[in-house]
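Run log, item B.
One chain of 485 residues. Sequence copied directly from the ordering sheet:
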Amino acid sequence: MKKKIDNIGIVFIPDFLFLQLNMCKKIFEDYNCNLHGYTGSVDSIKFINNNFDASFFKTLSSSAHPQRNAHKLKIKNIANVWSTAKKYEKILGKPYGEIILANRHFGKGFALAGTHHPESPQSKINYTQMTEIINRELIFWDKELKEKKIKLFINPTKALAMLAHKRNVKVRIQGNSRHKNFFFWSEDEFCLNKTLKNQFSKIKKIEKNTYLKVSYHLDFVQRKDFFKDSALYKVIKECLKIILYRIKGTLKGYDGIKDSYYLGSFIKYRFKGFRDRNLMMSNFTKSISQLEKKPFFFFPLATEPEWSLQVQASDFFSQLWAIAMIARDLPSGTTLAVKEHIYSLGSRPKDFYNQVKLFKNIEFIKINEIGINLIKKSIGVITINGAAGFEAAVLGKPVIVLSDNCDYDFLDHVQKIKNGEGLKKAIKLIEDNRIDLKKAKKDGRKFLQAVKNSSFNLDNFSNLKRTEVSSKAIVEMTNSLMRSV
């Protein structure tokens, strides 16, 4: 088969490591490309070599060294730090703030509703140290791109993706299609599927059984695992597991173990999560049955800090501000149903839930309620950019999206409200029944068909069974990637 790209780089994502290793092997076999793999630590390279035949890689490197022991960094020439930063900001055309926002350690301050996320040595560094670390990361990647003549980078970091665009290097990021176990290849770090609108326009006939019945596979599997054990048992089990891992890592001298979350902070976070889970199951919250006789909009809370909010919605990442705006603009008699995300338990500010409760037209929904059931009972969904907005669009429910980064706003029943401007008007349009719901349901099914047509299927793969990878999934994943470039 004809070779398309001479040099390809890939940053491995731990949850998808074996999947991506097998994909790289397939790329090498079919296209004979030079492959350059990058891991988060030297120990990860050892793990790969001990558990996988990675001889087909041209190089395997750790890309984490610019951040190692960041809190111990001594800076002699402070003026050079700022001049280098300004040089790269000019190249990128954007301030370092966008890179900081995407980093859950450096950018913890941007997780406005995630202030109790565990602390780490990296989250304690000062402004100058942080800037120098970003300088070093960009210098490292600039050198790698130039010396290895990389023309395609798979799953780059935020900083690398921004730099790659400016160095004429193609970027592909594995995005979740939010349906079953389908994924797609995005052209940028915002994980937008830019082929959807075109795919939608091409569809003449919708396949049978093109319906959304449950949430996407990874979410379904994770929720099932989350609720299968008692809350206290799960917390104790996770804390013991991390304590044993830290002891083992310290004794064996694992690379990067000292840069991990502070153990005390992590344990505190987990036990706070236990309390938050109990609260989200108590009389503090309502069930769907207690709400279904009242008109309500559904607003799903997102995890913080998280890529989907701090990167994909970098233009609108304040959830509390979103809630306040919606509460202000709801008409009399209409409620906003707010539901917590299972992976945000423990991270919220101390009085976050009580502060939201101060809005009299807002109700928290029990955390074990299924999101799709809430969507079906609601009159519409308002989201920053969460999966609930996508699911509502597929189900033919009216949707209001607050982030500018949305790939399904071409649908007539989806309204994109940039910076919240026009929110009152958008809500009124739904309240006044001026959206054609019959057409919305038909368009929703057609949209789901477009999603499937532009995606590849990973079968039964999940991050809970990371080594179980089917050959069929590898072929689909590889072919989809190479077609996209």
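Observations after the first pass:
- The first strand starts at residue 7 and ends at 11.
- Residues 231-252 form the longest helix (22 residues).
Flagged for discussion on Thursday.
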